[in-house]
Design a protein that fits this description.
The active site is at residues 262, 389. Keywords: Lyase, Magnesium, Metal-binding. The protein has 493 residues and is α/β, with parallel strands linked by helices. The chain folds into two domains: 76-201, Enolase-like, N-terminal domain (Enolase-like, domain 1, 2-Layer Sandwich); 206-450, TIM Barrel (Alpha-Beta Barrel), CATH 3.20.20.120. Helix content is 34%, strand content 17%. The protein has helices at 14-29, 125-138, 146-156, 177-197, 201-204, 240-254, 268-281, 297-306, 321-328, 344-353, 369-381, 395-406, 455-468, 475-482; strands spanning 35-40, 43-48, 52-53, 76-87, 92-93, 96-97, 101-111, 116-122, 212-214, 217-220, 259-262, 287-290, 313-315, 335-337, 358-361, 385-388, 436-437, 440-442. The strands form five sheets. It has a seven-stranded parallel beta sheet, covered by helices on one side. Helix 2 packs across helix 3, helix 3 (146-156) packs antiparallel against helix 4 (177-197) and helix 6 crosses helix 7 (268-281). The longest helix has 21 residues, at 177-197. The protein is globular. The model is unreliable at 1-50 and 54-61 (pLDDT under 50). The structure holds D-glucarate (GKR) and magnesium ion (MG). D-glucarate is lined by residues 91, 93, 168, 171-172, 262, 290, 292, 338, 389-392.
Length: 493
């Protein structure tokens, strides 16, 4: 039976709870937030000029349903959501090209017991609006009760009328909105829980089964620099020689022992050639190719057959579960996805149709770290492999990814990361904790996530956000502003 509440409460009657919440929401609505108008390619849009802070006030906040006595709770008193932008490079993909800045949102939670926790998520305006909408309702929750946070998020999102804001420029749109919104709060809650009990997040997730996490070197076709700007520190990579040279530098600098090529940019023949070039240059590295669904079923089958014995897995060659299943019947290598299985609802049809061999988890859209572990249990049950997807991200997310991978035994593929594409001065954490040795990051062993916020850096990147004029990731729009004839096609070949 489905009641008005997603998780029927045994606590105080709903009417009382609702009344005090609306009183609380009214108070919060009156809190001062200043706005600036930003010029964007789509005209002028209104945007808060300051980080959004939920004021400290527990007055009128209803009791949580947790049976833990009040003195042992660590209740959320304040949530700060700070949109930030960090410099990005002109990385090409099948929907366009990365813009000059990548957007993220940093979530800070504070408790009445003096603990603070960090989360990181997408910075698209509709997503930030949703974070702000739910943050109000999380004040007062015991930080150990993430189930209660999730319940309140689901309820709060019933009022959500925004669209889009998936943070992936249209490449992943079917993920669950409540799970995407929950994710940074779940991570920040775990960060605090770890600090309270004096243990790293990996311990809270069941314990680390590995002390370092291997990542794959994520190769992109790219321009030498953003048009109209100086060239960046990475050369152009627009053919096989460029991709092989990029891989050589990435392996030399970071020690990666697996490589992934972001495809869907040039013709399948050119991308096959690039993969064969990589195989020649790196005879022992597992190789992956990911065109983000740019190919028809027939093209995917041709590519898969040509690359027999070369790829560790072929990622999202074609769109959709049914298309992937048709490809999988005809190609020899495992098929992986972060596009056709992006929420719990997708798992059953994908298994039923035999669409994939490997699911790429991503705690940013699978509901945080514990729900990503629920996915891990499902993949184990169905004999599927588990890997990890990434998008442009900063250190808080990297720490979360590392703890998750450490404590998830069957997450044993080298994980994806966009880390090498970020300049070292473009992060919000105090440097030093997360570094790559032989393609892997050591799992932090200090309490919580093990990373610390650099407030000056946060302010600097927030300032960049306000100045850059971007409110949503839009790889296609940016490409079309540079090459008006560019068309978004799916599939493209
Ligand atoms: O950063 O351009 C990119 C990637 O294409 C990214 O957005 C994808 O979501 O890396 C991702 C993937 O594996 O599909
Ligand atoms: Mg992918």
């Amino acid at each position: 039976m489905r009641s008005a509440s997603p998780f029927p409460s045994r606590g105080s009657p709903r009417s009382w709870r609702d009344k005090s919440w609306s009183r609380c929401a009214c108070l919060l609505k009156r809190s001062a937030i200043s706005y600036v108008r930003l010029r964007t390619p789509r005209g002028c849009e209104r945007q808060p000029a300051t980080p959004f802070i939920v004021p400290v006030s527990l007055e009128g906040v209803p009791a949580v349903t947790s049976p833990i006595v009040a003195s042992e709770r660590h209740r959320v008193t304040k949530i700060t959501i700070t949109p930030i932008a960090f410099r990005d490079l002109p990385l090409l993909n099948t929907v366009g090209v990365h813009e000059t800045f990548a957007l993220r949102a940093i979530v800070e939670i504070e408790t009445d017991s003096g603990f603070t926790g960090l989360g990181e998520t997408y910075g698209d305006a509709p997503h930030i609006a949703r974070l702000r909408m739910v943050a109000r309702d999380l004040v007062g929750v015991d930080i150990f009760n993430v189930s209660e946070m999730r319940r309140r998020i689901i309820l709060a999102l019933r009022a959500d009328t925004t669209v889009g804001g998936h943070g992936m420029s249209g490449m992943v749109t079917g993920s669950s909105t409540p799970d995407r919104v929950l994710s940074p709060f779940d991570v920040a809650a775990l960060d605090i829980q770890g600090k309270v009990v004096g243990r790293p997040v990996s311990d809270l997730l069941g314990g680390a089964v590995r002390s370092e996490i291997a990542f794959s070197g994520y190769l992109f076709y790219k321009w030498a620099g953003h048009p109209g700007q100086d060239e960046d520190s990475w050369d152009a990579a627009l053919d096989t020689a460029g991709i092989v040279a990029q891989a050589q530098r990435m392996v030399a600098d970071f020690g990666f022992t697996a490589l992934k090529l972001k495809g869907g940019v040039f013709t399948p023949e050119e991308e096959i050639d690039a993969v064969l070039g990589l195989r020649k240059a790196f005879p022992n590295h597992p190789l992956r190719l990911d065109p983000n669904g740019a190919w028809t079923v027939d093209t995917s089958i041709n590519v898969g057959q040509v690359l027999d014995g070369v790829l560790e897995y072929l990622e999202d060659p074609t769109p959709g579960i049914t298309g992937m299943a048709a490809v999988r019947r005809e190609v020899p290598m495992p098929l992986a996805t972060n596009m056709c299985v992006v929420s719990f609802d997708d798992v059953a049809p994908a298994v039923r149709e035999g669409a994939v061999d490997v699911i790429l988890s991503d705690h940013h859209f699978w509901g945080g770290l514990r729900r990503s572990q629920a996915l891990a249990g499902i993949t184990e049950t169905f004999g599927l492999g588990l890997s990890m997807h990434s998008n442009s991200h900063l250190g808080i997310s990297l720490a979360a990814m590392v703890h998750l991978a450490a404590a998830t035994p069957n997450l044993d593929y080298a994980c994806d990361t966009h880390w090498p594409w970020k300049d070292t001065d473009q992060d919000v954490i105090v440097p030093g904790v997360l570094s790559f040795h032989q393609g892997a990051v050591a799992v932090p062993t200090t309490p919580g996530l093990g990373v610390e916020l650099d407030r000056d850096a946060l302010a600097r990147l927030h300032e960049q956000y306000l100045k850059c004029g971007l409110l949503n990731r839009d790889d296609t729009g940016y490409m079309q502003s540079l090459q008006p004839e560019y068309e978004l096609l799916s599939p493209r070949w």
